[in-house]
Amino acid sequence: MIRVNNTEAFALIDLSNVSSLDLFKHESITLGHLVLNPADNQSYTIIDRFGSLPGTSTIQKAFKRDGVVVGVTITSSVSSTLGSNESVTVSLSNRTSAIDTILSSSVRCDARSNVYDVTGLNIAFNADDRYNVIIDTPAWITQNPQGVTWSVVLHIRYN
Amino acid sequence: MRTYEIKYEPITHEGKTIDKYNIYYYLNGVLESPKEYHSKDGINGEIRQGYTLKTE
């Protein structure tokens, strides 16, 4: 509503040609999966299918616009048996450009919740690039964790 | 049809063998996802609901 000289009027703004994507420059995308008992030396690929098991590298998402991943938040949750202190490696894989970037190689599954914030990233991507997150497990010497959920939040700044 | 099988896949660490049993889940005979850890003894581990033992 606009008030001019004490006269109220409604202004109609045509937004029909404005994409909702044009209205923001930043987005956080959360990736995750169904709880699992990770085996040694495996690559689990995740996207945003929280109701599905981690898959292989064939499961992928696409970036909507050109942009940059500026940071990530990685959470490792264990609902059953805690693992020994070996770490998993979490990578962002751009399947289109065939570039993998390690986000963290020190993610442990030795507590109910471990949260890792990774800042200062500058991982550029183009619109329609296919991507996923790969979690490479170690050989757990003493105990494999059981009842594990990993989630990865990608903090994105669009161009 | 959802099936599973358990395989003995030990690892070696510092010359010592560590027992590991892993579980494979199949959907209509096709591996559904990367294998999971089952247990140290092949018996006392978790099996997802709705899966039956794979037979040849």
Number of DSSP strand runs of chain A = 12
Distance separating the two termini of chain B: 14 Å
The H/E string of chain B reads: EEEEEEE
The low-pLDDT segments of chain A are none
The share of residues in helices of chain B is under 10%
First and last CA, distance of chain A: 32 Å
Shape label of chain B:
elongated
Strand percentage of chain B lies at: over 45%
Q: Which CATH class of chain A is shown?
A: Mainly Beta
Which sheet architecture does the biggest sheet of chain B show? 5 strands, mixed
Concise overview:
Chain A is mostly beta strands.
Description:
The complex is a heterodimer of chains A (159) and B (56). Chain A has 159 residues and is mainly β. Chain A contains no helices and twelve strands. In chain A, strand 7 and strand 8 form a beta hairpin. Chain A is elongated and about 75 Å long. Chain A starts with a strand and ends with a strand. Chain B has one domain. Helix content of chain B is 0%, strand content 50%. Chain B contains no helices and seven strands. In chain B, the strands form two sheets. In chain B, strands 1, 4, 5, 6 and 7 form a five-stranded mixed β-sheet that branches. Chain B has a two-stranded antiparallel ribbon with strand order 2-3. In chain B, strand 4 and strand 5 form a beta hairpin. Chain B is elongated, with a radius of gyration of 12 Å. The chains are: A mainly beta (159), B mainly beta (56). At the A-B interface, loops of A face strand 4 and strand 6 of B.
List the helices and strands and how they pair.
The complex is a heterodimer of chains A (159) and B (56).
Chain A: E1 2-4, E2 7-9, E3 26-31, E4 43-46, E5 61-62, E6 67-78, E7 87-94, E8 99-108, E9 113-118, E10 123-125, E11 130-136, E12 148-158
Antiparallel strand pairs in A: 1-2, 3-12, 4-11, 5-11, 6-9, 6-10, 6-12, 7-8, 7-11
Chain B: E1 2-8, E2 11-13, E3 16-18, E4 21-27, E5 30-31, E6 36-39, E7 52-53
